[in-house]
Every structure is written in structure tokens, then in C-alpha cells.
Amino acid sequence: MTNDDQTFARIEALFDIELFTDVKVLIAGCGSGGSSVALQLVMSGVRNFTLLDKDTLQIENVIRHVCGRRYLGQRKIDAVEDVLLDRNPNANISKIEADIMDYRDMESAIIESDVVVLATDNEPSRYRLNELCVKNRKPFVVARVFTRGIGGEAFAYRPGSGGCLACLEMVLARTTFRDGIKEIDLVSEEERQKVYGMEIEEIKDSPGLSLDISFITSFHARFVLDAIARGLPQRPKYLIPIDENYIIWGNRPVHPFKKHFHLQRIDLTPQKNCAVCATESAAHV
Q: How far apart are CA 72 and CA 67, in angstroms?
């Protein structure tokens, strides 16, 4: 802060934001989720960001994005940078305009960060970052909004103690938690037969209202703060550790959720047969 700036005066009593001075956060994906998490983090005192995205802001984005109409046509990384600097002009922001799947220095960007915010909208990019973070023992937090905003999930990878994203998928494959959460689960049998087993891209989720998304991005940001605190020499006061590393949230009573604001918690441990973290864990023994 400069010139006795009182920007953070109201939250300094909640936790010591000076502990965040040197923390570096990589925001991988600056869409509605990633931009919201970045905004929550900068308002919590985080100062050092790397923003990674290849897209520009389009008219259909503004109804859910932290950046509004005046940013139309701009690169998302530029638009989000402007919003973050508006909240804290002393933030240090680096930008990478690239596709995660094609970016050759992706591993270096991860190594240089303390925590990765995984906020992409497709499985291949999530799994690439999962593998790189596991390989380099970097914590990350990923979240996803389920179709039509019925709910969502947030998961934190904690190197050395918790399972990775591949472990999570192995566990969830044996549960009903994922039943009915994608658009493809809501179509008729006739429509399902048209895409099943064919080389047609999976029907993309429709995330729902900004209000629906905000619940999930709040969980996402809170898990990121927890990940940051776990890596500090001294934990910020009042930032109590989160025991579980995975939560599922239901916004309303639509299958598979049974009530409004339905919260389920899971403490995911490393899975012995995981093709990603089991190998890396053995290598670090």
C-alpha cells in the first residue's frame, strides 16, 4: 500500500495480509470462474498474479463475468488485469496469452507459482495441469459448475497428503455424485443414442446464472486461501484449516441433490492405483 492507503484496513483484523506479500498465484483460465476467484483473492490481499488465457471477452460472457461491456473485444487477461488493479493498484500481474494445451512453458509457469487456480472449462486441460502440478508437487484448486447451475464442486490437491484429480475421478466413478450433472444426462434416449459412441464432442455444460456460479467460485476461492496458508511459514490468524479437500454443492433440489443448499464433504486420500500421483508419490519416498 502507498500513501497510507486504507484499502485493506477493514480486513487486517481478520488475518495478516502482509503474509501474502510474496505469494504467487497462477490463474489458469480467466473465464467467469477464474476471473471471480482472482477478484476474491486480490480483495483478500493477494498481490502477485499470473493470468493465463487465450480468449477475448464476448457479449455472451458479460452476464456471468466480472468484466462488463466496456471490455468487449479485449483479451480476457487484459480485462481481468484492469479489474484487479482497480481493487489494488499495487498488485503485480503477469499475463500469458496462450492455450494451456499448446503452451510450451506451462510447466515453468507452474513451478514459478505457489498455488495454481485451475479454472478451465474442459477435461484435457484440467488433466494436463493435474499431471504437471503432481509432478512438481504444486498445490492447485479446481472447481466446476454443473449443468444449468444446479450445483458444482471444488477440489484441492494437497501434495503429500491428498489425492489428485485422477484419484478423484476414480472415486466418483463408483458413486452417484456425478449422475445427472451434465447436459448429456438430461437429453432423451433418442438424442443420447445419436452421440453415444460416436466422434462427437460431449454436449457442453450450460453453467446457469451468475448467482449459481458465485456459490462455487466462493468455495473455489476459499480453498485457494487455505492452500496459500498451508504453504506459509506462519498461518494467518483466523484462517482455520479446511479438513476436507473436496466438496459438492447443490444449489437446488434437482437430481442428484435432495434439497436446496445441499453440501457434501469428502476427504480424498491418494488412490493406490492412480496412474498419476501413485507414481510420483513413490518417486518422492
A: 9
Question: Could you tell me the CA-to-CA distances from 86 to 39, 56, 90, 111 in Å, in that order?
Answer: 10, 20, 9, 28
Phi and psi of 70, rounded to 5°?
Answer: -70, -10
Of residues 227, 261, 264, the one with CA closest to residue 246:
264
Alpha-carbon distances, residue 216 vs 96, 179, 261 (angstroms): 25, 18, 11
Helix, strand, coil abundance in the chain, percent, nearest 5: 35, 15, 50
pLDDT tens figures, 102-149: 999 999 999 999 999 999 988 899 999 999 999 999 999 999 998 889
The span from the CA of 77 to the CA of 86, in Å, is: 14
Domain 17-283 in this protein, CATH class:
alpha beta
- 3-state secondary structure at position 16: coil
Alpha carbon 254 to its chain centroid, in Å, reads 24
CA-atom Rg of the chain in angstroms:
19
Q: What pLDDT is attached to residue 260? A: 97
151 in helix, strand or coil? Answer: strand
Question: Model pTM greater than 0.70?
Answer: yes
How far is residue 256's CA from residue 260's CA, in Å, rounded to a whole number?
12
Distance from C-alpha of 45 to C-alpha of 23, rounded to nearest angstrom: 10
